[in-house]
């Protein structure tokens, strides 16, 4: 009888322990999913926000300042990706005439956008109670300017139907959506106020 009981215990442990771990994993995942959904609820492109920022859930949790940093960090990465694509188009002379001139403008505007986003991230890493209001004003100005830069790039290719142009337009449009989301997260930080910057 003792041997049978031991076997039963072993079998139960084998089957129940993984189930317990899996359930715990689902609980953690669900909680992280709640964090990012709550943070992204203030953005215009919520599905894109959730997809691009989900990996920050455990670190950012319910901190508006951390979500704002995450939003700007992701935007910087995406802007750099588009910059690399623009550079390839220029290097291999894929575009001609008006589109080549528009490409040069895009390269310039994206360089400006990247600079504005880097300045924004620098401020978000050094938030201060003494200058919080001024910092929020600067962030709004710079990220809005980056968004304008991206829109200016799109304007240069308006009405163009080529496959390469359409692909570029889609990439720039996607970045503009991500930038818009980052701006919304920064504005959320601004409205939340000083209590949201007590964490490091």
From TrEMBL:
SMART domains: PMEI (SM00856)
Keyword Signal: yes
Domain Pectinesterase inhibitor: 31-185
A Pfam short name: PMEI
Top-level division of the source organism's lineage: Eukaryota
An annotated GO cellular component: apoplast
One term of GO molecular function: enzyme inhibitor activity
Entry keywords, A to Z: Apoplast, Disulfide bond, Secreted, Signal
Subcellular location: Secreted, Extracellular space, Apoplast
Signal peptide: 1-22
Signal recorded as keyword: yes
Family that this chain belongs to: Belongs to the PMEI family.
Xref: NCBIfam families: PME_inhib (TIGR01614)
Protein name: Pectinesterase inhibitor domain-containing protein
């Amino acid at each position: 009888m003792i041997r049978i009981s031991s076997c039963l215990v072993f079998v139960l442990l084998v089957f129940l322990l993984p189930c317990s771990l899996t359930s715990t994993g689902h609980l953690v995942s669900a909680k992280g999913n709640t964090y990012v959904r709550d943070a992204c609820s203030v953005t215009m492109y919520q599905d894109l926000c959730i997809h691009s920022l989900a990996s920050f859930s455990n670190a950012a949790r319910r901190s508006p300042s951390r979500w704002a940093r995450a939003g700007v960090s992701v935007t910087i990465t995406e802007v750099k990706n588009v910059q690399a694509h623009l550079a390839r188009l220029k290097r291999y002379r894929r575009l001609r005439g008006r589109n080549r001139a528009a490409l040069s403008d895009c390269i310039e505007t994206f360089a400006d956008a990247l600079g504005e986003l880097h300045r924004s991230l620098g401020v978000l890493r050094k938030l201060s109670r003494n200058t919080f209001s001024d910092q929020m004003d600067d962030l709004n100005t710079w990220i809005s300017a980056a968004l304008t830069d991206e829109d200016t790039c799109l304007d240069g290719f308006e009405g163009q139907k080529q496959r390469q142009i359409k692909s570029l337009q889609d990439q720039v449009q996607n970045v503009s959506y991500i930038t818009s989301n980052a701006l919304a997260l920064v504005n959320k930080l601004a409205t939340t106020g000083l209590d949201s910057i007590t964490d490091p």
